[in-house]
Write a sequence for this structure.
């Protein structure tokens, strides 16, 4: 069995200020195995970035447990956390400005965070990465002469500079055009084929339809999960498919540790309940939920 890369159990994050308390994660459970490419979707404010920031070690959880690559994000010392952020995780944001230095060349930007022993080794690794993101021909260009989409591809190379076990991306295609979004997504797919574990937050419906596993977060908890149908596994590069409207995945609800499920809104509405009571019974190996008689 593959080792778990991410193991979140009952994860809680509370943002406190003087006046208010925001419960951003409300007991989130998620397991991601090593080698998986997982997409995280959900409405704005549902807790996606909060969760990614916890995993990335940018912010500390309030309660629950979180293990990443076997490391406990709860008990980690500040010193270990610095080391963790450097070597275990790589992070790509929608707005990559904070990663990039405009007056350095693309290649220099990629070399900057590296911890390899010699400049020669750094240069070799940086060349490998810049080829991977398809920008070898622009290796000497300053970042401020490159387009937003190109900068985003460089940001991906930078995130990979120290060969992280886990690549995190928070809406990496959020501010690029559709063609660049596709290109970036292909980079992730290719990386994943070569064994890279990736967790990506995306709003892009068409792209999420091509991912093997999509988990949906609602009100700070994983509410449902979609798994790519076998029949689509080999068709992901077909350009004649209208991915946005294609029914590529099987949808499942997620039971939490206490056996609770969140009934999808439309189904709940169809039950037409007068109050919060419903009848639940086992019938032919299925659980039936119905309004009281
Ligand atoms: N630093 C913060 N301080 C206070 N509240 C925050 C902070 N970051 C996020 N929140 C709140 O936590 C909730 C989840 O936010 P976020 O994780 O950014 O959602 P998403 O990425 O899914 O849009 C929202 O209600 C948001 O306003
Ligand atoms: Mg967000």
């Amino acid at each position: 069995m593959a080792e778990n890369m991410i193991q979140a159990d009952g994860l809680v994050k509370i943002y406190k200020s003087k006046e208010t308390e925001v419960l951003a994660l409300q007991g989130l459970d998620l397991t991601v195995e090593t080698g998986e490419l997982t997409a995280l979707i959900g409405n704005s404010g549902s807790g996606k970035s909060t969760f990614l920031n916890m995993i990335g070690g940018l912010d500390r959880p309030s309660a629950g447990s979180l293990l990443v690559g076997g490391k406990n994000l709860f008990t980690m010392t500040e010193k270990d956390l610095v080391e963790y952020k450097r070597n275990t995780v790589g992070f790509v944001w929608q707005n990559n400005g904070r990663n990039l230095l405009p007056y350095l060349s693309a290649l220099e930007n990629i070399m900057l965070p590296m911890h390899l022993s010699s400049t020669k080794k750094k240069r070799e690794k940086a060349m490998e990465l810049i080829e991977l993101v398809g920008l070898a021909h622009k290796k000497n260009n300053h970042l401020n002469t490159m387009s937003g989409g190109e900068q985003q591809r460089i940001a991906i190379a930078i995130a990979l500079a120290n060969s992280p076990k886990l690549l995190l991306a928070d809406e990496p295609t959020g501010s690029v055009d559709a063609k660049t979004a596709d290109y970036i997504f292909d980079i992730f797919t290719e990386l994943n084929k070569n064994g890279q574990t990736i967790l990506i937050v995306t709003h892009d419906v068409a792209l999420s339809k091509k991912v093997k596993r999509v988990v949906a977060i609602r009100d700070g908890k994983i509410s449902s999960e979609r798994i790519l149908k076998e029949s689509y596994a080999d068709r992901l590069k077909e350009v004649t498919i209208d991915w946005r409207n294609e029914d590529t995945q099987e949808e499942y609800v997620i039971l939490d540790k206490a056996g609770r499920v969140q009934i999808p809104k439309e189904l709940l509405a169809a039950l037409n309940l007068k109050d919060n009571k419903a009848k639940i019974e086992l019938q032919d190996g299925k659980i039936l939920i119905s309004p009281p008689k």
